[in-house]
From TrEMBL:
Highest taxon above the source species: Eukaryota
Source organism (scientific name): Daphnia pulex (Water flea)
Protein name: N-acetyltransferase domain-containing protein
Alphabetical list of SUPFAM superfamilies matching this protein: Acyl-CoA N-acyltransferases (Nat)
Keywords: Transferase
PROSITE patterns: GNAT
Amino acid sequence: MEGTYQMPFQSVAMWEKRLGTPIPGSHVFVAEHEGRVVGSAGLFPFGSSPRLRHQMGFGISVHPELQGQGVGHALLTAVTSLADDYLGLERVVLEVYVDNDRARALYERFGFVHEGTQRMVALRRGTYVDGHQMARLRPR
């Protein structure tokens, strides 16, 4: 979970519960390899306001051993297809650590652009780190 905003050392049971009971209105994809979960990605609503229904937040996590092997690409392909072709979302938003170059490059390949930087957004190994906010508008 080093490259994500998730807490480290969470139990398998916690992840099974989280993935098995998603937030209402969210959409979650799971990647499996040799019978085990190696990644997940999802779209999450920004509350219940009708004024925000055109956009959703995005989160992704890929097991460190399989990063760079196409898992993230496959998950992003599924998520962006769902967002564009079935949910009609106009905007998908994410946050990424400023030093996570590999993830930022992947997001950019899918049309996400940098919209701003949040200073001291998360505590990681005892130090506050900055995060970029990125968003993707639905292609026309």
